[in-house]
Each structure stands twice: as structure tokens, then as C-alpha cells.
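Case 81 in the screening queue. Each case pairs one protein sequence with one candidate compound; here the compound is zinc ion. For every case the pipeline is the same: read the inputs, emit a complex structure as C-alpha cells, and attach any notable structural observations.

Predict complex for case 81.
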Amino acid sequence: MTPWRQAAPGELCTCGRQAREVFVRADGDEIGYCGVPDGGSKSGPCPFCGKRRHSPGPCPRYTLRLPADPVTCDDPRPNGG
Ligand SMILES: [Zn+2]
Ligand SMILES: [Zn+2]
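Case 81 output:
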């Protein structure tokens, strides 16, 4: 069986682009790949840490999905009279 699967929307390549495929490593880590082998080197700084691009290898802060936006919690307290 292949360790590759199709990426879902929102899953990112190590270069920061939307991933096309996701490689599942033996240890369970998932790494996205956008299909462009340039590592995003022409698209500015690292999208995960904001510093220089990392070569070789992904950013130590790389995650397949960026953390969800902070949820603005509507305070559910009832309006006590
Ligand atoms: Zn990429
Ligand atoms: Zn980085």
C-alpha cells in the first residue's frame, strides 16, 4: 500500500502552499507536498516561522494544518435579570 494519500483542503506543503498529496511517515507524521519541488524558495520567507527557508528539510514548526483561528467565543451566559 502506498504511504501517500490525497491532501484535503487546508493541508499544507512544507513550502506553505496548499498540498496536493500527503505523505504518511512510518512514525505517523504527515507531511504535505504541493508538487513543486522548489521548496517554496522563490516565495519569500518560511511561512511557518517567518524566517529564512530551511534546506534541507521542513521547518521545525511545520504542521500539516495551521492551527485553527482563535475561536471568538460568544459568551453563553444567560442574561440574568
Ligand atoms: Zn511545496
Ligand atoms: Zn521555518
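Case 81 observations:
- The chain is about 0% helix and 15% strand.
- The chain has one domain: 1-66.
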